[in-house]
Amino acid sequence: QVQLVESGGGFVQAGGSLRLSCAASGSTSTINIMGWYRQTPGKQRELVTTITIGGTTNYADSVKGRFTISRDTAKNTVNLEMSSLRPEDTAVYYCHVKLSRVWLNTYWGQGTQVTVSS
């Protein structure tokens, strides 16, 4: 199993920047994909960005050019650098991990609140 702990959320004004981190522990040797999702009240959770063990990245259209995902394999962490933040970026951000195995292969963090004021 894998345990995920997010950090770095908080309040920021529109146009500002924020950096989120997610630390993984447990069966980290089998991690295949790490990423971030976000969710606002009354809306479904949506994909923000992912990065594979090989370093391939994927971004939602709404964050391309503003958000950057990175991974530190040695430290078992994944980071999300957010710039040019907008009020619509306000959400709870969740770290997500997918393992390279058939059973018990997906895990979620507790979430960290990001609030962008106008």
Give an overview of the whole structure.
This protein is mostly beta strands and 118 residues long. 0% of the residues lie in helices and 58% in strands. The chain contains no helices and 11 strands. The strands form 2 sheets. Strands 2, 4, 5, 6, 9, 10 and 11 form a 7-stranded mixed beta sheet that branches. A 4-stranded antiparallel beta sheet has the order 1-3-8-7, with no helix packed on it.
Write a concise synopsis of the structure shown:
The chain is an all-beta fold. It has strands spanning 2-7, 10-13, 18-26, 31-39, 46-52, 57-59, 67-72, 77-82, 91-99, 106-108, 112-117.
List its salient traits.
single chain, 118 residues, mainly beta, 7-stranded mixed sheet, 4-stranded antiparallel sheet, 11 strands, 58% strand, globular
Which helices and strands appear, and what pairs or packs with what?
Blueprint: E1 2-7, E2 10-13, E3 18-26, E4 31-39, E5 46-52, E6 57-59, E7 67-72, E8 77-82, E9 91-99, E10 106-108, E11 112-117
Parallel strand pairs: 2-11
Antiparallel strand pairs: 1-3, 3-8, 4-5, 4-9, 5-6, 7-8, 9-10, 9-11
